[in-house]
Design brief:
By secondary structure, the chain is an alpha/beta fold. The chain folds into 2 domains: 168 residues, 2-enoyl-CoA Hydratase, Chain A, domain 1 (Alpha-Beta Complex); 252 residues, 2-enoyl-CoA Hydratase, Chain A, domain 1. The protein is built from 21 helices and 21 strands. Strands 9, 12, 14, 15, 16, 18, 19 and 20 form an 8-stranded mixed β-sheet that branches. Helix 2 runs parallel beside helix 3. The N and C termini lie far apart (64 Å).
Length: 583
Amino acid sequence: MIAKSPSKNNPRARFMIRILFVLVQNILSLTLWVLATPFYLIGKLKGPGQVWVELNLEPDFPISAPKSRWLPKPYTYLNLRSDLLEIKQAKRCKGVIVSWDQPLAMGPAKLAEIRRLLVEIREAGIEVVFFCDQLDTRDYPLATAATHIVLNRAGRLYTFKPHMELYFFKGLFEKFGLAAQFVHVGEFKTAGHRFIHQNAPRAQELMMSELLQRLNAELETTCGPRFSPALHELAPMDARNALKHGLVDAEIGEPLLPSFLADSENFDPKSELDPKKLPLVMNMEGWRASKFEMPWKPLLRKPLIAVIDLSGMIVSSGMSGAGAQISPDKVIPALKALKRNRRVRAVILHINSPGGSASASEQLWQEIQDLRQEVPVVAWCTDVAASGGYYLACAADQVVAAPESIVGSIGVIMGKFNLSGTSDKLGIGVETIGEPSLLSAVSELDGQLLENIQADIRSFYATFLDRVRLSRRIPRRKLHRYARGRVYLGRDAQKRGLVDGLGGFEEAYRRALELTQLPEKAVALTSYAYKEQDFRALLRENLLYSGQAQVLDKVERHQLIFEMFQNEGMLAWSGITTRSQVP
């Protein structure tokens, strides 16, 4: 018989063991800190007063790091936020230089999150300088957070006016004998339109035109005084023309950047500056390493506000596919773990999803409801919270969306692809034994089966409306006018009562603190990961937004959509993307 450890099921014993270890750790930390203090003071006296910190942006920042035993954890948005908030309060930071080596791949709402943090730094009296080789329509609003926008002398502005391109494949499918059949509730539920129409129906055209108009208005509002008609009308333009029209503040080569930082007001590119007057520039890793703080660990652990990331398409448990996915068999155990954790006082759900499987959305909705019975839940919507994504958001106590977020698409679609024509063209014979079903690849939707499907999606649409009506407290008749598959930007969604507040993570965090009735200093912020990091995902990250990765993303995305339509049947998916060009 194996004797059990006395501390295994004894909370008091575990607490005493923790106290002992923490005391020993703090004594060692204090000893090392005291020994290092003289060296730090000597370095501070001899070193420069204030420094510049270089922030090199990655193409994207995950909200939380996936679980991995061997692979290094990526730098997340919450890490970035923590670093920028520390810089905002640091007296020895003169300014921040923002740049990037690869094209930014974040959606407008996530870029707006970073912009808000940089604006806070600028308003705290710390200079923010953007140094870029080129700026496009996606990047320029972010750059307007800067005190100075500096464009490389060989740089360009590609700030074309946003537009949308909708592609329809009915004619292509007919050439291959492929037929798409979809049934939907709501004239604005357009996910299947690209497969069954050759042109945009009037409702889709109206909705997308209004959406584009709102996006352009948000772009102008974000840019503020920096906005000029020349931003779009003269694009593309070189650095000299951009400077001439006030879209940038300087056009210099990288070797002259330190001189510009030393005295931006009186900068003269033809004069040489004394090397002793040049500022010290360190990267973010150097900045973190230079902090001289005693790593004191508290004896009592703080209560937690946990952030869990729900990004990607919502798929059924066990479904294969690459890329970001939200699957009940992965997410539900994580939500149950948060529910069991006594330290968790509130949960922030980060939602960035165009929707997906209706049944999986309902499973996740039920689990979020169960979690709400224990702790408050705030939904933080970034780029897209549409259809199934919005379905999940409605399970939370409160919903926060950015002005740039795409929200809504309350509707249902169901359908399939019929390959009988394709098989005929290829000379493939198919014999069907028994009654064909929705999952058949070579049968049409007709007769009783079609009636059953129509009744099924009407039933789920009624459920969808009830979920939203009870969550948002909107009368059913008014809600139906807002629904029918229509999507809105965050500001319009708030006017209609579909979201509670406008903003980003800080607004969601503030609301979570209010619901817990705890001061910010009394809690700790943590992210909870449920996704596993594997070598394939790491390879995709290294190829991110290279030509190979873009092709891989497109192929896998459409392969997953096809698989879901064939195997899942009912969907609550919007088909909306956040890029200026909608495929």
